[in-house]
Amino acid sequence: MSKHTKTRRVTDNLPCELTDEERLRFADDLAEATQQAEQAKLNKQSAMQQQNTEIKLAEARRERLANIVASKIEYRDVLVDVVTDYDNDRFTRTRHDTGEILEDRKLTDDEKQATIFDVETVDAPAEKVEELNEKPDESDEL
């Protein structure tokens, strides 16, 4: 080497032909990367569906509450006393909590055909009817 020559070693990114072993390794890596990408897409779709479901549930709740506020009414399960009075030919439904009469009408022809159970209820001794009326109702304790 001459005095005016400078030599140094550097790294350049150059094309290199793959060996069979390297090609197989890259093929395996490619298959794994493809699976990961597909799984990520599925996870994204699933997450979006979950978010959409949560949004719909929240909007439905908001709509239900808005209707309650606007109408000042909420439908609830309320105990109702149902009386079929065969002697007076009347059918009556009365709210247990307020005493409000919800329905008071004549018996229909079908209702007039008393079943054995209904006849026994109508003919029950007064003490038994009073006992049933005095018995506390489980739902009143809530």
In short:
By secondary structure, the chain is α+β, with helices and mostly antiparallel strands. It folds into two domains: 21-75; 80-133, no CATH class. The chain has helices spanning 20-71, 109-112, 116-122, 126-134, and strands spanning 80-85, 90-95, 101-106.
Uncertain runs are: none
Shape: rod-shaped
Distance between the termini: 103 Å
Main sheet? 3 strands, antiparallel
Helicity level: 40-55%
Backbone CA Rg? 41 Å
Share in β-strands: 5-15%
Helix tally?
A: 4
> How many beta-strand segments?
3
- How many domains is the backbone divided into? 2
The neighbouring-strand order within the major sheet is 1-2-3
Helix/strand order, N-terminal first: HEEEHHH
Give the helix/strand class: alpha+beta
Explain what this protein looks like in three dimensions.
This protein is α+β, with helices and mostly antiparallel strands and 142 residues long. The model has no long low-confidence stretch (mean pLDDT 85). It has a three-stranded antiparallel sheet with strand order 1-2-3, with no helix packed on it. The chain has two domains: 21-75; 80-133, no CATH class. Strand 1 (80-85) and strand 2 form a beta hairpin. It has helices at 20-71, 109-112, 116-122, 126-134; strands spanning 80-85, 90-95, 101-106. It is rod-shaped, with a radius of gyration of 41 Å. The longest helix is centred in the first third of the chain and has 52 residues, at 20-71. 51% of the residues lie in helices and 13% in strands. The protein has four helices and three strands.
